[in-house]
Design goal:
Strand 10 and strand 11 form a beta hairpin. Helix 2 packs across helix 8, helix 8 (about 340-425) runs antiparallel to helix 9 (about 435-465) and helix 10 packs across helix 11 (about 510-525). The protein is an alpha+beta fold. It has twelve helices and 20 strands. Among the domains are: about 80-325, CHASE domain (Beta-Lactamase); about 465-615, Heat Shock Protein 90, CATH 3.30.565.
């Protein structure tokens, strides 16, 4: 009997248990190592995809924003410059005429198709104070009984203009509707407008004002004016003094900033546009630079804080405008996309599914091996059955070809005998056949000839596409010439062959049979004593498309498919001796060359065109 002390038992027991635990852990780690690797790689790839997608999304948003912003800025620039150029045509009108009345001005403005963004086009004459009454009376006679020179008070009310040595009234305005308040307004009564007038008068150039509130303004937006000076002698004088002395007046364009932007942004920023447009007049003093939108809190371009921004400087009519495009708050440009997070989530899901699938695949590998072995045995058996069927089919084709050949030759022998016998009877002077009997004998010989042609056609049809293919270069233009020489067309027929017919590596008998049948049919089925046949080709890459076109009676589209069937003829056999096999042979030979054939002919039009494609390389078995 042995004794084990508690201290000894405590030392012996835990060691084997720990070893067993370590062995079990090692086996579990070894078994699950591929899954752990998949999870680590998958999660790392998902995180990388998240980072890459985030950078790509940011770059894509910036590119999209820049492209859209630049497009809208360019449109605004183009609209401003185009409408400003309209004023030059008004100066041309006054330079070309000694006087321009109100009706002529209206008709001219209508002809130049003023854009919707232009509030009005106006004529502003220089009126010395002594001539004021004369101008007011003339306008009243033109249909404006309440016309007078007006000015605007500090409260915005329109009152009769006070005394000035020179008045600059809005005398003509088009369109009149919507601009009634502006008619008669003395631009010299406003300091901003007068400064622009004096600048244009002295410089002889187009001058735009700072931002102003238009007399006819009913909404909440700024406007601006563009003046172009018009002189008495037409041309712009060389000196300031001469320009001051010879001024006749001004052409004036009236613009509303909101209308200009709205024409570009499909209604302006009242709609959910992803881009906000701000326009600042850099030529104006600080605090007066904002042109659009009037509701903006930004007084200068530096006040705009946006992560995406694009801007351009527009210089025209002595002004420098800065057009700034920023991402609209809440738009797709201003908020981050969910795509990077979706990529991370999707990558994690794919990683989990991959790990699950991997564990399932390991368990089914043996089953898959057994299934592959079973399918291999079935495939071998199927191939053997296929080979047996192919051999049987080959034997059947050989028997059919032999039968067709024997039938053709064995049937043609008695037919020749019948033809010879009928010929002897007809030619025998002692037979004394009646006229009707001689007619019937001729019909019998015709039927015999037709049957012989039918047998020849059947034999050729049975061989079509199944003879041994000997590929060699074939000059198709020379081949067509040989076919025409063989067919011997009537003298009044013209057959033209395109100069670009190619040399093709193909089976010459097959291509020759196709061309001979099509050209022969064009001659045979023509309904006139003279005609024209054309043979042309078109390179379609892997194949050539040959076309045989004639100016004969044409083929009704209802029969386009029928003409390619065997034994089918459209004309009665009493009028046209045809076996009805030629186009069937063409179809089979073209198919053996890997091509297709079709006919083109329209109702009510003469002529038909047969198109067939022929591969540049003769197809091998199985192509």
């Amino acid at each position: 009997m042995s004794l084990v002390f508690p201290s000894q038992a405590g030392n012996l027991g835990p060691a084997p248990l720990a070893d067993r635990r370590r062995g079990l852990s090692g086996r579990l780690l070894h078994r699950n190592l591929p899954l752990i690797v998949i999870l680590v790689i998958g999660l790392a790839a998902s995180l990388g995809a998240h980072i890459i997608t985030k950078d790509w999304d940011q770059h894509n948003r910036e590119q999209h924003f820049d492209r859209l912003a630049q497009e809208q800025i360019r449109k605004i620039q183009a609209n401003v410059l185009t409408t400003a150029a309209t004023l030059r045509s008004i100066r041309g009108l006054f330079n070309a005429s000694a006087t321009v009345d109100r009706d002529e001005f209206r008709a001219f403005v209508e002809t130049i198709e003023v854009a919707d963004m232009v509030q009005a086009l106006e004529w502003i004459p220089l009126v010395p104070h002594p001539a004021r009454s004369e101008y007011e009376e003339a306008a009243r006679r033109d249909g404006f009984p309440a016309f007078e020179f007006t000015e605007r008070t500090s409260q915005g009310a329109m009152v009769r203009a006070g005394y000035r040595e020179e008045h600059f009234p809005v005398y003509y305005v088009e369109p009149h509707a919507g601009n009634e308040r502006a008619l008669g307004f003395d631009l010299g009564s406003d300091a901003t407008r007068l400064a622009a007038l004096d600048h244009a008068r002295a410089s002889g150039r187009e001058v735009a004002t700072e931002r102003i509130t238009l007399v006819q303004e009913t909404g909440e937006q700024y406007g601006f004016l563009i003046f172009i000076p018009i002189y008495l002698d037409g041309a712009v004088p060389d000196t300031v003094a001469a320009r001051e002395a010879n001024l006749a007046g001004f052409g004036l364009g009236v613009f509303r900033m909101g209308d200009i932007v709205a024409s570009v942004m499909a209604g302006g920023q009242d709609f959910s546009s992803p881009i906000d447009i701000h326009i600042f007049d850099q030529s104006a003093p600080p605090g007066s630079r904002l042109l659009y939108p009037k509701s903006s809190l930004a007084e200068d371009s530096g006040d705009l804080q946006a992560s995406l921004r694009n801007e351009a400087l527009l210089q025209f009519a002595t002004r420098d405008w800065l057009i700034v495009a920023t991402a609209a708050e809440g738009s797709l440009f201003a908020r981050a996309s969910w795509t990077p997070w979706l990529a991370l989530a999707l990558g994690s899901i794919i990683t989990a599914l991959t790990a699950i699938c991997f564990s399932v695949v390991i368990g089914r590998t043996r089953y898959a091996d057994q299934l592959v072995m079973l399918r291999t045995v079935e495939l071998v058996r199927a191939n053997q059955e296929r080979e047996r069927v192919l051999q049987k089919l080959k034997k059947t084709n050989e028997d059919l070809e032999s039968f067709a050949y024997v039938a053709s030759h064995d049937l043609k022998a008695p037919l020749r005998g019948i033809d010879n016998l009928v010929s002897w009877i007809v030619e025998d002077p002692d037979s004394r056949l009646s006229e009707e009997s001689q007619h019937n004998a001729r019909r019998l010989r015709t039927r015999v000839s037709r049957l012989e042609a039918l047998l020849d056609g059947l034999l050729e049809y049975s061989h079509a596409g199944r003879r041994e293919a000997k590929v060699k270069p074939v000059d198709t233009r020379l081949l067509c010439k040989q076919i025409i020489e063989y067919l011997a067309p009537p003298e009044r027929f013209t057959i033209s062959i395109a100069a670009d017919l190619p040399v093709v590596n193909t089976v010459k008998p097959a291509l020759e049979t196709v061309l001979r049948n099509l050209i022969g049919n064009a001659l045979k089925h023509h309904d006139n004593d003279e005609g024209r046949i054309e043979v042309s080709v078109e390179d379609q890459g892997e194949a050539y498309q040959f076309t045989v076109r004639d100016d004969g009676p044409g083929i009704d589209p209802a029969h386009h498919d029928r003409v390619f069937d065997i034994f089918q003829t459209l004309a009665p056999r009493s009028k046209l001796d045809s076996s009805g096999i030629g186009l069937a042979i063409v179809t089979r030979l073209v198919a053996s060359a890997g091509g297709s054939v079709r006919v083109e002919s329209n109702v009510g039009e003469r002529g038909a065109a047969f198109h067939f494609t022929w591969k540049k390389t003769w197809p091998i078995d199985g192509d």
